[in-house]
Amino acid sequence: MMLRSVLAIGAHPDDIELGCGGTLAAHRAAGDAVTMLVVTGGQNGPGSTAGRRAEAEAAARNLDCLLRWGHLVDCAVTADAGTIAVIEKAIRDTEADVIYVHAPDDSHQDHRAVTAATLSAARHNRRVLHYRSPSTTRFEPTVYVDISAHLDRKIDALSCHRSQVENSAMVDPEVVAASARHFGAQARVRYAEAFTPARFVWDLAPVPQMPLLTGIPAYPARVPA
Amino acid sequence: MMLRSVLAIGAHPDDIELGCGGTLAAHRAAGDAVTMLVVTGGQNGPGSTAGRRAEAEAAARNLDCLLRWGHLVDCAVTADAGTIAVIEKAIRDTEADVIYVHAPDDSHQDHRAVTAATLSAARHNRRVLHYRSPSTTRFEPTVYVDISAHLDRKIDALSCHRSQVENSAMVDPEVVAASARHFGAQARVRYAEAFTPARFVWDLAPVPQMPLLTGIPAYPARVPA
Amino acid sequence: MMLRSVLAIGAHPDDIELGCGGTLAAHRAAGDAVTMLVVTGGQNGPGSTAGRRAEAEAAARNLDCLLRWGHLVDCAVTADAGTIAVIEKAIRDTEADVIYVHAPDDSHQDHRAVTAATLSAARHNRRVLHYRSPSTTRFEPTVYVDISAHLDRKIDALSCHRSQVENSAMVDPEVVAASARHFGAQARVRYAEAFTPARFVWDLAPVPQMPLLTGIPAYPARVPA
Amino acid sequence: MMLRSVLAIGAHPDDIELGCGGTLAAHRAAGDAVTMLVVTGGQNGPGSTAGRRAEAEAAARNLDCLLRWGHLVDCAVTADAGTIAVIEKAIRDTEADVIYVHAPDDSHQDHRAVTAATLSAARHNRRVLHYRSPSTTRFEPTVYVDISAHLDRKIDALSCHRSQVENSAMVDPEVVAASARHFGAQARVRYAEAFTPARFVWDLAPVPQMPLLTGIPAYPARVPA
Amino acid sequence: MMLRSVLAIGAHPDDIELGCGGTLAAHRAAGDAVTMLVVTGGQNGPGSTAGRRAEAEAAARNLDCLLRWGHLVDCAVTADAGTIAVIEKAIRDTEADVIYVHAPDDSHQDHRAVTAATLSAARHNRRVLHYRSPSTTRFEPTVYVDISAHLDRKIDALSCHRSQVENSAMVDPEVVAASARHFGAQARVRYAEAFTPARFVWDLAPVPQMPLLTGIPAYPARVPA
Amino acid sequence: MMLRSVLAIGAHPDDIELGCGGTLAAHRAAGDAVTMLVVTGGQNGPGSTAGRRAEAEAAARNLDCLLRWGHLVDCAVTADAGTIAVIEKAIRDTEADVIYVHAPDDSHQDHRAVTAATLSAARHNRRVLHYRSPSTTRFEPTVYVDISAHLDRKIDALSCHRSQVENSAMVDPEVVAASARHFGAQARVRYAEAFTPARFVWDLAPVPQMPLLTGIPAYPARVPA
Fold first, then answer.
1. Given this model, what pLDDT does residue F206 score?
2. Which residues are paired to B5 by β-bridges?
3. Is the Cβ of D119 closer than 8 Å to some Cβ of chain A?
4. Which residue has the higher pLDDT, D214 or E199?
């Protein structure tokens, strides 16, 4: 049984849900394994660190994805060998064959650093897709995933980040839905998430799907030590 | 009293409303004169030519803008000397100092032709802004107009084009509102229309506004011979 | 049984083989239906029209794809309503859900015209990928298909176009292999064809593959009236 | 009385004058408040620190703008939280609604760092425009300000930086005038400064101008503690 | 004795002088053969056709270059097989190894058409450089030629086109000098012309120069039948 | 006797050979002086530091170029004042008038840092060309050097880096040859190396070549203290 192993990487709790939460839900629905790597604890945003950790765990549970923490510090990420090593280890551990990460042009220094470190760590990977964040500055997507069946799930997962939804001007579920419709129209579907590929090898016969697949037990959000 | 003279150019009835209807309403609210130049009669879309003409007149009335027809034929526009002359005349007649037109990268041949002809006709103008159409293929906007107070008006004007709203997959008021919210978030306002400038001279002290200005009579949609 | 329906479009006989012949072979291997639409008869290149027609049929047979002719004239293609109609009909007839066509920046006027007409005809399609030609002028690919198992087949199909391989400086199997290795290294596979997406909706669970699939009879190259 | 509040940010003394000195003069002429934030003392260029400070004060006086220092060190600026905080404070203190800063592609590391930090600090602002420096490497302007009435003032202000004009190959008033004419021709005016917008919301009815406005006293260059 | 053969192509009389007149003078000074191909007679600009022909001849004489006419009609050039054939013949006749032509993004339809036709005609050439025109809309040059010793000659040649200098807002020697200084500063020389390469093979050991070279007789402007 | 002085800069041993080894051989064949500046010792790749040093010396000897070390540490290069100073000194010492360096968009942090530092250090130079590395992420070359006569030499020099050729997926002579053929076809020659210019002033009459030139003694690889 061959499944895709998906690794989504974000600088802060809620970044991944904002950027590609619907796509991760679609991957799970297709039977793929999905791990979310949150590089920092989001120490600088609104909300306590413990609270944000709990929110991220709830969101991952909601999306039925594994959760993994990078243990770096919010607003102090650099694309150095240490950050690259954290991401390389996640790629190795998950044997990722699809990687999602922030878009390169972004006004948040942590986002830029995580993206640069990911491009380095993923230098041998065949599929690296950039998602959009509210702070992304340039973004001309050409690749889309249809999330019409998963938008609700995305909003639900995002809503788990209550400290952000309530206090950050950047996190607004109404905008998330509007952007999904906007990109959906571009993609000729109803709701879509949009991506710019760093490198995307389209696998024409990707995954011999087992009929039993939908029966595998959902795995719980887990925080590696 | 100096007012801005605005000229919005579109290939077909409904193109202008879709692309910059809210901005035109904002110009009218600021006291500017606005003319819409519809280059063809939209002969090839759904709806009769007479019907589409009436729809366009209703929409222009709704936006309180002058309407002007280019009398070219739908799906057969080329950026030749004839088309350029039609647009040059509109620029001269209106003494336009702001021009709106389709974005250059568009899958519809008429849109591309109208844009090319406009760039030629407007070669001496200081302000040419490209708006987005559902068929636009590449578009990275950097200039926005806040249409939060005018989105309803835009949707109303668009709804006048009943033949399109009901029959064309490309004309969907729900998507129009979603895109306005999407671009609004990018612009840090609520609802926005987005533009790419061909050339935009920002006039720091543009229009000595008369206090009486809001009292000028609305002018009716008019079809020049 | 759901299969993908693939439509590859090229201006002249041999364009499709050069640009995406390996990918078409990979689609056939994955059980997809593939149609090649050759828009002109290649009247202006070296070789007789009848000869080129026979070469194209041999190449399509080699790739096990359907062949369809557009009946336009070499070096005189324009992106007008007539050309668009030819392509729209092919899209409708094949119910294409993946479309391949030339890249937009190309020094050959026919290539540019076919691409523009395709973008118009495919305005409702979710997957349009641009392939590279020897005359392509700008091309920064981000999407790839692994053709390591199909490069020989590509070269074989191309070699059917003997009149071109022997007489055109632009058609050189050695360069074709070199480019496939170059793009393969970029894609982190051995041999690849490279694409720029106009619009690509990645279908995470595309095709419930039947185990019998490899047993379907190869269909012969056919020239519709 | 609503006036625009303008904040111009540069890495070193003379950067702002070179990039947008004419535009700042035009803002002052339109009655807007203007603050210049010089992030470093220019310790590494020719001239003593005290001398450069005096030159900057003279230039600001010449342009009738407030001057504010960032107190970072020349050639050692990074886009970290500290630099961002300095700029955030200036934005807050001035309630800036227009921000000018270096273009992102620049061979000077300080320029790149100041731009990155500004994009982060100004993440909620509606108007951020990038100006060109002699070390800018890529720059395709689309937004211009007509400085025909202010070029002399720009050159005067620049000339206050005698240590640079006399000793740096990068600071040459003759080139400044030539570039203003070059960009003026692009903008269809006589002399212009050119900008690339990070984000520019065009305010169609920006500033209810009071007739008394030209009577407000010019405010002196001031160095905050 | 091997000399470079240079072919400069422009849509109208004066286009070549505006775009690369200084560079042609530099080529002549280096001993290269230079032919100017003017594709149309400039029938639509100010000035009679005969007058413009005489002006072009005077300018070519001034630059000591051969002059060749394309005999197409102003404002009606298309990039079709006929235009391509005119340019192919010029390339063949001159055995050109360097070709100069308009930049592709230009608001004048003739300029775009001449550029497209040239890229097609020059498909086997190793050196095709695009020059800038006043109507060029996008242009980010990376290649320059130092014309510090030839700016006067460029202005002289341009001044031969009296009908344009006196009557066209687009032809202004003052702007020509300003742009040369602007691009010179970018290139780290005094005056430069700027180019974007379509394709440029840098010949490290290009031309075994004979010492007698400066003694070859200047050849007169000639109009082929 | 005027010769060009060429400076090629790379982050690690083997980077220069991969990116522009054939071009350096062509420069030597044209009689130019060539220095290779290797910024780090390649401490993090496969192979001992002493071994890599010896490999680099052998490769430089093979290409008949001078070798110079930057003494920075692999995977820890930043574009700070120290790195800039190392490169400025190399430029000054060699009086470089042509500089080669990595392309700016690259997934390796050292490559990006070396490029940024070089653009700063070379701010007064007229010719800076970017070469491609296996980790380069975006690259649209427009400038080429014909290395048909030097490909073997390039492969030989690269093969001196045995520790890399044998152990790094990124260093594969077969790919090097394929890319040279791919870029050669783009350049209309047999084998080429490809470049994107940061700034390239084309010297039309560059180097009065002395007939004796081929007789100058090859200079040995030398490691400055």
1. 56
2. B33
3. yes
4. E199
Lowest-confidence pick of B43-47, F92-96, F99-103:
B43-47
Q: Does the structure show a pLDDT above 90 at F178?
A: yes
Confidence label for A206 from pLDDT (cuts 50, 70 and 90): low
Distance from CA of E29 to the nearest CA of D (A): 26
The answer on pLDDT for B213 being more than 80 is no
A115 touches A128 (CB < 8 A): no
Most A-contacting residue of B144, B171, B183, B186 (CB-CB within 10 A), to test interface: B186
Q: Which CATH class is domain D5-200?
A: alpha beta
Residues in chain F closer than 8 A to A80 (CB atoms)? 76, 109
Is the CA virtual torsion A76, A82, A84, A88 positive or negative?
A: negative
| B75 part of contact set with chain C, CB < 8 Å | yes
How much is the average pLDDT of D119-127?
97
User: Could you tell me the mean pLDDT of each successive run of 10 residues in chain E, 225 residues long?
Assistant: 86 97 97 97 89 96 98 93 97 98 97 98 98 97 98 97 90 95 98 98 70 40 37
Q: Does residue C213 sit at the A interface (CB-CB below 8 Å)?
A: no
The alpha carbon of residue A84 and the mean position of all alpha carbons in its chain are separated, in whole angstroms, by: 17
Cβ contacts of C204 on chain A, cutoff 8 Å: 26-27, 29-30, 32, 145
The minimum CA-CA distance between C182 and chain F, rounded to whole Å, is 5
Phi first, then psi: what are they for A24, rounded to 5°? -65, -40
Q: In A, which residues are within 8 Å of B178 by CB distance?
A: 177-179, 181-182, 185
> What mean pLDDT value characterizes chain E?
91
| Interchain pair F185, C178: CB under 8 A | yes
**Yes or no, beta carbons of E203 and F143 under 8 Å apart:** no
Tokens at C40, concatenated: 């002109």
SS3 E218: coil
Residues of F with CB below 8 A from A79's CB?
109
Look at the block and give the residue holding tokens 């990018």: B186
Confidence of residue F2 (pLDDT cuts 50, 70, 90): low
DSSP state of C42: -
Q: Which pLDDT does position D205 carry in this prediction?
A: 81
Q: What is the ipTM of this complex?
A: 0.91
Residue D84 and residue A169: Cβ atoms within 8 Å? no
* Residue F64 φ/ψ region, left for φ over 0, alpha for ψ in the -120 to 50 degree band, beta for the rest: left
Buried b (16+ CB within 10 A) or exposed e, B51-80: ebbbbbbbbbbbbbbbbbbbebebbebbbb
Gap from E170 CA to chain B (nearest CA, Å): 9
Neighbours of C156 (CB within 10 A): 18
pLDDT value at residue C209: 44
Residues F45-57: b if buried by 16+ CB within 10 A, e if exposed: bebeeeebbbbbb
- The residue count of chain C comes to 225
- On the question of pLDDT at A187 being above 50, the answer is yes
Q: Minimal Cα–Cα distance from C165 to chain A, Å?
A: 29
Query: Is residue F167 packed enough to be buried (19+ CB in 10 Å), middle (13-18) or exposed (0-12)?
Result: exposed
Nearest-CA distance B205 → chain E (Å): 26
Q: What is the pLDDT of residue B222?
A: 39
Name which of E52, E15, E54, E18 is nearest E37 in CA terms.
E15
Identify the band that residue B26 occupies on the pLDDT scale cut at 50, 70 and 90. Answer: very high
Cβ–Cβ below 8 Å for A188 and C201: yes
Please report residues of E whose CB lies closer than 8 A to that of B124: 169
* 3-state SS, residue A10: strand
Q: Where are the alpha helices (DSSP H) in C71-131?
A: 81-94, 109-121
**Residue F143 is nearest to which of E30, E200, E205, comparing CB atoms?**
E200
pTM, two decimals, is: 0.93
Contact C79 B135 (CB under 8 A): no
- Where in chain E are the domains? 5-200
